[in-house]
Amino acid sequence: MQTMSQDIIQLTAFTEGFTLPVDIVHSGDDRLFVVEKRGIVKIVDTTGQKLEDPFLDITDRVSGSASERGLLGMCFHPDYTNTGYFFVNYTRTSDGSTVIARYSVDSTDADKGDPNSEKVLLVVGQPYENHNAGDLEFGPDGYLYIGFGDGGSGNDPQNRSQNRQELLGKMLRIDVDHGDPYAIPADNPFAEDDFTLDEIWALGLRNPWRYSFDRETGDLYIADVGQSDWEEVNLQKAMSPGGQNYGWRCYQGDAEHNTSGCEEEGTYTFPIYAYPHEGFNCSGSITGGYMYRGAANPDLYGKYIFTDYCTGKFRSWSSLDSVVEIILEGEERSFTTFGEDSAGELYVAAATGDIFKIEQTLTATKESIVVDKLILYPNPASDKVFFKRQFESSDEVLEITVFNTLGISVLSESISTTDGLNISSLMTGVYWIKIVDGGVEYLAKLVVN
Predict the structure, then answer these.
(1) pTM for the structure as a whole
(2) For residue 211, is pLDDT > 60?
(3) What average pLDDT does the segment 304-324 reach?
(4) Distance (Å) of CA 147 to CA 100, 213, 306
(5) What is the tally of structural domains in the chain?
(6) Is 92 among the domain residues?
(7) Which CATH number covers residue 287?
(8) What domain range includes position 416?
């Protein structure tokens, strides 16, 4: 008998064998693109198989010598099908500066990016080797959002995050479809402000390693890595005009950090959630994720899922009631990044080179094995799911209802445990089975291959 755990999600092995994966993105089709810190991007198909040749290899220009440097982020143009453009964020070999560059797909091979097509959009000097951030995301407005860390060292010694004449410690927003190499959106909050750089969308960030947009609402979630005490998640609603100051170095989470020379507390925008470190050394480093909007895991819908590089704990923040819960405990891995495929399903990468798919666990009202075995025979008439009682016996039949991911009943039967449920009428996909046995209700996921 298997006891139902308290974990809400499970990590299902998807693919492996990568060298320090730091980003997972899609281009609008079934492929996933895995970014390796050393300067290589590889393609993975829907079964987790890697293409032999890389999509992009720019190791000749990427400096990955420090732990927080390298090829750190990638995203595809919203109209990639027509433009063939994708964008990367890397630290260059010559001086360690951050480079934001555009590349083009090979005109004769959709599985190849052209390393010779580089157009540099932006170069920002990095005074230290850490806090390079690295993410790139297109917003629902079609503009490119670029997150920069505070430049490094510790405690932002030059106060760059609050300096409006520096791009470090900021979220930038630029128009890559106009201008040369880009244009400033007319509605950027500081476009007409002589005291603030035009590119700045928000300020007061320490190291926004990963951030993402909710594909349904357009809300922006920024996971900002903390200094010594707190990790935080910031939320910028879709209709925001920008201009938020998230508080670093004056505040860390909700707590004062170094308020020397800072403005009144009401000037700053505080996180929707912050959690404390749990010890010493590598005691906390948030890895931001996504608001789940897929169809395969309905219990996760409407939850922002994130983890921590140091602790391996997964948490979720509910968009309905702002409640945070630990949804997976005790994973002894250093998780570097999340990814979302074109259907909204989530993946997470570990520094070991393994990539997992995030799925919700089975749920039940008491400990049990609900589905003992799924057997698929060549003869469709023999395709059955068998059930096995591992608790007190009952002479009553099992009342079975199968639902698709939209919650629509597609199969209903009354059977005994020895009969098995014939699923030959079900198409390939993900379903949910509700089993009622002696008045006790159970729920299990069914994957038909």
Answers:
(1) 0.82
(2) yes
(3) 92
(4) 11, 13, 18
(5) 2
(6) yes
(7) 2.120.10.30
(8) 364-448
